Amino acid sequence: MIFSGQSILLKALLFYITFLAEAVSTQAGPVFCGLLIGSMLSGEGFLTQALLAIQYDKVWSSYHHWVATGRWRW
Fold first, then answer.
1. φ, ψ for residue 7 (rounded to 5)?
2. Which of 4, 16, 38, 40 has its CA 20 to 30 A from that of 48?
3. Residue 60 lies in a domain
4. Are 14 and 6 a contacting pair, CB within 8 Å?
5. Structural domain harbouring 60
6. Whole-angstrom Cα distance, residue 71 to residue 6?
7. Closest Cα to residue 39, out of 2, 31, 12, 6?
């Protein structure tokens, strides 16, 4: 059961995640969202903790490279 205050928070969160996901390339959008949600779930914000909080499908160094350089290397 979702209360009114929670609904407002979820709508705002969805708006900002969508806005940020549209700012990155189409290929990097799912990776970005996964890392963002992983960071929120871990509560610490570190890349390693974010990856441990989600199911990721690339190697760790690929995520690190994407965050460090702002580019995705396929």
1. -65, -40
2. 16
3. yes
4. no
5. 4-69
6. 34
7. 31
Token pair for 21: 């996901």
Q: What is the torsional sign of CA 63, 45, 10, 53?
A: positive
- What is the full per-residue pLDDT of the chain (74 aa) written as tens digits? 677 788 888 899 889 888 888 888 777 777 787 888 888 888 776 777 877 888 777 777 777 777 777 665 54
Question: What is the DSSP secondary-structure string of the chain?
Answer: ---HHHHHHHHHHHHHHHHHHHHS-TTTHHHHHHHHHHHHHHSS--HHHHHHHS---S-HHHHHHHHHHS----
How many domains, in total, are found in the chain? 1
Closest CA to 73 of 3, 61, 1, 17: 61
Q: How many residues does the chain have?
A: 74
